[in-house]
Amino acid sequence: MSVLSVKNISKSYVDHKALDNISLEIKKSSIFGLLGPNGAGKTSLIRIINQIINQDNGEIYLNGRPINYDDVRKIGYMPEERGLYKKMKVGDFLLFMGKLKGLNRNQCIDSAKSWFQNLEVSNWWNKNIEDLSKGMSQKVQFISTVLHNPELIILDEPFSGFDPINANLVKSNLMRLKEEGKTIIFSTHRMESVDELCDQLAMINNSRKILDGDTEQIKMKYKSDNYLIVHDKKLKNDPTYSIIKTEKVSDGIYESEVSLIGEKSYKDLFKVVSGYTQIISFKEKIPNMNDIFIMKVKQGGKDE
C-alpha cells in the first residue's frame, strides 16, 4: 500500500518549469530516495508535499485521501535550509518545536531524551544553539524533525554537514525507524547513501522524472555484462571478452575488469580464463546508483 501518492504534479515559476508531470508511489515502511542534480526540482516537490507552496496541476494523496494542512503537522520535515533559533538553548528549542507538533511538555522531554541517547548527545539539553558546530546543529534539527514520532519523515539533503561517523549514526537510526514501520523520503544529489539505504527511488532531472522503481531492480536493469576477476597471471586477449582495465593488486596478483563479447556467457568467460590463470575471485560488476545517475544525466534526462 502507498502511504504517499504524487499524481501528475507540475509547477512553474514565471518562465521556469520546476516540475513537469511528476508521479510517484511511496510504500509504507520503506526508505525512498528522491534523487537528482541541484536545481532538478526535488525541493519544489518536497515543498508541495508539505503544503508550503501550491502546485499548478496534480494531486497529493496521503493514505489514500487528498493531503491537507492538518496532515502536515503529523509529518516530520527537515528542510535543506536549516532553521534553529540561535539565542535559545537546545532543550528550550526542542520544547518549542514539540509543542508546535502537539506534544505536551513531558512528551517533549521524554522524546528528546530518547533521541539524545540514540544520537549520542546526552549532555546537550542546556547547550546554547549558537555555540554548536554545523554537524551538532544538524543533529538538533534532525531530533526536532522526529520528536513527535511521525509516520512519514521527509528529509532534504539530510547528510550535508555530517562527518562520516555521524552520517552513519543517522543512517542506522533511519533503518531503525523503517523497521518500526515509518516511511522515510530523503532528497539528495549525493549517491553514496542511496545504495545502502533506499528500497525505492526516483530520479528527477530538468524538472522531469527520468527513472523510478525498486533500487535493486534498477541496478540489475543497467548492468553491462562486465565482470571483475582477481587472478595470478595477466589476462590474454581472447574473442570471449575484451579487457577494460587491469590493475596490479600485489606481487603476482591482478584485478581485471572485462566485458563479454557477443553471445558469450559468464560460464564461457570463466572456462577460458581459468584455463591459463588461477582465479582468486570472480564476480559480475553491478553498477551503483552513482554510475547510473551520471549515465542518466549525461543522456540528457531521456527515460527508457
Short description:
With 304 residues, this protein is of the alpha/beta class. The protein contains 10 helices and 14 strands.
Which structural traits does this protein have?
304 residues, alpha/beta, Rossmann fold, Alpha-Beta Plaits, 2 domains, four-stranded antiparallel sheet
User: What is the CATH architecture annotation of the largest domain?
Assistant: 3-Layer(aba) Sandwich
Provide the spatial order of strands within the biggest beta sheet: 6-7-8-3-9-10
What is the CATH class of the largest domain?
A: Alpha Beta
Amino- and carboxy-terminal Cα gap? 26 Å
Remind me, CATH topology of the largest domain?
Answer: Rossmann fold
Shape: globular
**Derived structural class:** alpha/beta
* Share of β-strand residues: 25-35%
Tell me how many strands there are.
14
Order of helices and strands: EEEHEEHEHHHEHEHEEHEEEHEH
SS element count, helices: 10
Helix content: 25-40%
Number of domains: 2
List unreliable stretches of 5+ residues. Answer: none
Q: What integer is the average pLDDT? A: 90
**Would you identify the CATH H-level superfamily of the largest domain?**
P-loop containing nucleotide triphosphate hydrolases
Radius of gyration over C-alpha positions, nearest whole angstrom: 24 Å
**The biggest beta sheet, please?**
6 strands, mixed
